[in-house]
């Protein structure tokens, strides 16, 4: 979870219900984001990084189940969505089949309308507590290098790095498990989505540019393991 108050995204097309939730959650100390449709919710999830989302199923531009799938199927390496985002469905569609579909698509909890706000608040608090104990894809540090995978930002010795989308995706993949050697096949598949090896020139050229951008002060972070792939090490240690 982010430092400070938790941020909750309310995805609800009924204005009165959405405002009721937003007002009460704000009064309870949460920061609240509001959306009335699937498309806007997807945008907010990938740019504002909420700590939890409350999702209605019946939305004007699609089914809330689509949003659940969008989150759970997110790519940890190349994407900007946390696939572990806690999801609570709040819907008038509360039959057994609807509940089963919700859990199958990845929701963590399911409440039916009409609902009790005190109970909803208790369920939200429980999900946030549970998620706080789970390893999160927060900032990753390797020596003087710091990577924020969700905000898509990186710093070297406190100075921001200017990286292309693919350069950052490559750095994010390597920083997820420092010192581990990632094969070229893994990186091509995870960052570029290549199913077959083909040429490795694309990977090698991006790795070379990334290495140069991380070489401030003579430190070496991106290491080419000959014949295998790449790994990320603490550049100050000269591994």
Written description of the protein model:
The chain is of the alpha/beta class. It has two domains: 7-132, Rossmann fold (3-Layer(aba) Sandwich), CATH 3.40.50; 140-237, Winged helix-like DNA-binding domain superfamily/Winged helix DNA-binding domain (Arc Repressor Mutant, subunit A, Orthogonal Bundle). The protein has eight helices and 14 strands. The strands form four sheets. It has a five-stranded parallel sheet with strand order 2-1-3-6-7, sandwiched between helices. It has a four-stranded antiparallel sheet with strand order 8-9-10-11, with helices on one face. Strands 12-14-13 form a three-stranded antiparallel sheet. Strand 9 (145-148) and strand 10 (153-156) form a beta hairpin. Helix 2 runs parallel beside helix 3, helix 6 (165-175) packs across helix 7 (184-192) and helix 6 packs across helix 8. The longest helix has 16 residues, at 117-132. The chain is elongated, with a radius of gyration of 21 Å. The mean pLDDT is 87.
